Amino acid sequence: MQLLITGGTGLIGSHLIARLLSLSHHVTVLTRDTAHARQALGERVEYWSTLQNHTSLDDIDAVINLAGEPIADKRWTPQQKLKPSESRWQLTEHLATLIKASASPPAVFISGSAVGYYGNQGAAFIAEDESPTPEFTHQLCARWEELALSAESDRTRVCLLRTGIVLAANGGALAKMLPPFRVGLGGPLGSGKQYMPWIHIDDMVNAILYLLDNPILRGPFNMTAPYPVRNEQFCAMLAHVLDRPCFMRVPAFALKLLMGEAATLVLGGQRATPHRLEADGFGFRYYELEDALKEVTGKK
Known about the structure:
Layout lengths: L1 E5 L4 H12 L3 E5 L3 H8 L4 E3 L13 E4 L12 H23 L7 E7 L10 E2 L9 H14 L7 E7 L1 E3 L4 H11 L12 E2 L1 E3 H13 L5 E5 L5 E2 H12 L9 H8 L4 H4 L3 E2 L2 H5 L9 H9 L3
Parallel strand pairs: 1-2, 1-4, 2-3, 4-5, 5-7, 6-13, 7-11, 8-10
Antiparallel strand pairs: 9-12
Helix pairs in contact: 1-6, 3-4, 7-11
């Protein structure tokens, strides 16, 4: 297949591209920094630095849209909120426009989203049809998904990736958690009761390939493992796998002082489950958090 990918140098994108190349697909990556991307991904990938000189995507079989400005790196001022929003919205809208302008459009548009779509949901089980709470993360994701869905037609299906916390050895949320945990200074955040929907990077990649290869699948999918855990359970398991203590709880007020409104990302949560993936026959490799953490930390 001829695949166009955005966000190719990110955590999910780089692992996905490695798998796609191993399966002999032809991969084109859209990136503003082609030199960096080429260094990260190699010479077997084709690189586009812009979409401006393209009027359609007639030669592309599938588009996988994973790009987006980080959402948790800075405090959420009104101006800062626009950066992760507009970086996702503008690119997704441009891709949808090109798909709709194509005489022979891509058969599938797989576009990123996040479990933040649902807002903070407490302990309720969250399947894809759950009603969201109107928080900033929902507003960001809802518009992102709306723009992606505008590309849908009888010739192009759209799949939305409502992704949880991706566990991998070389990046993502776990990379930020590991340093304090490795020296015995890790612990729960706030009450620790908030749910953390997680997924191993291998299952994330396999699920994207599953959506790519199954022409009847469309709409939103929770990209999470079947058994989300509370933050305190996650922290206790990570400490156990690393053979370290777990007692340095970070108070909620400290996180709010440090992060402002963005603290809701770590103090709130979603008990999201992959209802549609499992109902459609996808099989996970990592069901248990302990097995996933052992694999990504090398503690097998």
